[in-house]
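Weekly modeling sync, notes
Attendees: S.R. (lead), two postdocs, one rotation student

Agenda item 3: backlog of single-chain predictions. S.R. asked that every request posted to the team notebook include the full sequence so nobody has to chase files. The rotation student volunteered to paste the first one in as an example of the format we agreed on. Action items at the bottom.

Example entry:
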Amino acid sequence: MNPSYDFGGQVAFVTGAGSGMGLATARAFARSGAAVALTDVDGTALNTAAEQLVGDGHQVLALTCDVSDEDQVAAAVDRTVETFGRLDMAYNNAGIQIPPVDAAEESAEQFDRVHAVNCLTGSAALEDAPRGIRVNAVCPGTIDTPMVSDMIAKGELDRAEAEANQPINRLGTAEEIAEALLWLCSPGAAFVVGVALPVDGGYVAQ
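Predicted structure, as returned to the notebook:
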């Protein structure tokens, strides 16, 4: 049985919320009482996700946003605060994954794109802790999401090999990542700062 959380009266901001781990976490926050700002670069997926959550009776704000664009992110955060009056939690989920390649073969464009989209944690945690803002990271294993399904379909990832690489012998689910995130955002994790938490079926423990 999963623990229950009460985020009533609070506001969560979730990037990459159109599908996968972002959508699962947005749903989990909403079920726990939070109003949720959903952002995604894919406007179609974003609107579908927002309609589902609104249909379930949740408070939702949908914002198309490319997280590699600082101005778009700032505008999305401002709009969230204007709409809901506050911002309590942010899940910087948006990310991209590229096929493995030797560093010497990595193009400068691809390198810059990865670093523009995928987030920093340690530095932000140290800077923000004195302000009462906790920053942590969840490090997922191979999770059964549309992104992973697409990689498998393209031959960039072998499902059987990915499952065998995790001691639990299966892919994780987006909902399992969401549960870890809700705990990190809850009072139960009030003394947890700057942690990179593996939620990976034992992959890094090998």
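Discussion: group reviewed the output briefly. The chain has a mean pLDDT of 90.
Action items: rotation student to repeat for the remaining queue; S.R. to check formatting next week.
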